[in-house]
Amino acid sequence: GTFNLNGGTVKGNGSYYGINSTSGTVNISGGTVSGDTSNALVRTSNGTINMKSGTLEITGSKDGNGILANDIGTFNISGGTIKGSNEGTASLVKHDSTGTSTISGGNITKTSSNTQATVVYLSGKGTLNITGGNVVSQHGNVVDMSSSGTLNVSNNASIRGEGTTYTATISNRSTGKIYI
Fold it and tell me: Which of 5, 67, 147, 180 is the most exposed place for a label (fewest CB within 10 A)?
């Protein structure tokens, strides 16, 4: 099936997802998904998340992701805002999948003071393309890899650390491949 978020607010708190799609498509073209969750605000394991506009915001102290694609799930972020001030170590965007996901636009910013926090995390064997948008960290890694996946950075992507204690702009802690 298909889930469309065009406006309004969806909350994901505690151990609950804001939106959980095991298969099918989640389209976010407006509205807000927010909360302090130990899972993810928006998750797919066998489908696709398309974010064109709107806001995802992680708050509080739990270790939840903003967007999570695992198993064979994928995401396409072309606009909108994903932000987190949460003090957990989880990433705002996590690709833990064998599929191919893309960030081509939008603003993804982590302002947590936790130096273990990551903005974008590639932990699956698939491919993550960052071809545009702004990916910014105040602390911790901006993009982190711990898998045999592939990271492609091209076009007008802006990946940067703006704080005084960010660890690395792009970190590869495994056998993954990075192409810039």
Answer: 180
